[in-house]
Amino acid sequence: MEHPTTEELLASARVVSLPMRVRFRSVTHREVLLLCGPAGWGEFAPFPEYDDAEAAAWLRAAVEAAWEGFPTPVRSRVPVNATVPAVAAAGVEPVLARFGAVTAVKIKVAERGQSLDDDVARVAEVRRLLPAANLRIDANGGWNVTEALSALEALAPYRLEYAEQPVMAVSDLRAVRLEVQRRGLPVLIAADESVRKAEDPLRVAREDAADLLVVKVAPLGGVRCALDIVAQAGLPAVVSSALDSSVGISAGVALAAALPDLPYACGLATLSLMDGDVSPAPLLPDAGWLAVRPVPVSEELLERFAAPADRTRWWLERLERVAAAL
Ligand SMILES: O=C(O)CCC(=O)C1=CC=C[C@@H](O)[C@@H]1C(=O)O
Ligand SMILES: [Mg+2]
């Protein structure tokens, strides 16, 4: 692959600000920078608080998408979960309605400022609405080991498939996993931040700290890098989004479509949480599945959702710095 120069990257860059229907990670508008190369569009959208070093992997992923394209898929559609942010129990039903029919739901828990009772109420409401669905929770490392074990005990009656990053440190994740097994709690432990934000994304597998991995294309440096990490880890993988536009979601779908095994629904239906996109044919779920297909990007939508001038400048300067350091 010909690597694009910084000038080539800047020449094709567009910045959009997509409104969220439901606040997620305290984000009300998701800003993303899109790049267009010979293979199509790529998305560069590290969260604003990430430094340039962490953003580098996101740029490698965008360049892979736009200048190289994706590996050959082994499936033509990908099962996806609905994602429920840390809303009040009464807010669960309208959120779920956005996703249409689904057989798996991921529920955010351990949000700062909320209590375990709030989490239990939210999970109970999802279980009430979808008695047969596979439910997962994601704590984003918000608990300590004791809190995580109390929470998993309290949530056990609602039948969880797995708990994603209940605690932050790999050593704590391992401790929670061992204690969950000792107590015979029927819940698996998944690692997200321990993979995507780690110096060594394989440590969690080496130390038996998780039963499965949640993998995101951009923070892992692209579809091929993510495939490689999953293969080396030797653990089942769930692909999830970074709250992307259809362009970023298509990279996640490409990863999910290329994984040799895909035993769980993926967290790639997040466009349902948004109120705008750059594609006239957004990658939205249909009865719990996303099709593996190219996504067209329209000039009209790029213009409609164009970010304000100061934010565009901020993103272009970030792109220039991160590209220079690659
Ligand atoms: O996995 C899903 O169902 C949706 C994606 C999702 O939860 C996330 C997207 C972006 C940032 C993260 O805080 C969050 C996650 O932790 O997995
Ligand atoms: Mg997560």
UniProtKB/TrEMBL annotation:
The keyword Manganese does not apply. Pathway: Quinol/quinone metabolism; menaquinone biosynthesis; Quinol/quinone metabolism; 1,4-dihydroxy-2-naphthoate biosynthesis; 1,4-dihydroxy-2-naphthoate from chorismate: step 4/7. Keywords: Lyase, Magnesium, Menaquinone biosynthesis, Metal-binding. It comes from the Bacteria. Mg(2+) binds at residues 138, 164, 192. Its EC number is 4.2.1.113. GO terms for biological process: menaquinone biosynthetic process. CDD domains: OSBS (cd03320). It catalyses: (1R,6R)-6-hydroxy-2-succinyl-cyclohexa-2,4-diene-1-carboxylate = 2-succinylbenzoate + H2O. The active site is at residues 108, 216. SUPFAM superfamilies: Enolase C-terminal domain-like (SSF51604). One of its GO terms (molecular function) is magnesium ion binding. Its cofactor is a divalent metal cation. Residues 84-183 form the Mandelate racemase/muconate lactonizing enzyme C-terminal domain. The keyword Electron transport does not apply. Pfam families: Enolase_like_N, MR_MLE_C. Belongs to the mandelate racemase/muconate lactonizing enzyme family. MenC type 1 subfamily. NCBIfam families: PRK02901.1. HAMAP family: MenC_1 (MF_00470). Converts 2-succinyl-6-hydroxy-2,4-cyclohexadiene-1-carboxylate (SHCHC) to 2-succinylbenzoate (OSB). This is o-succinylbenzoate synthase. The gene is menC.
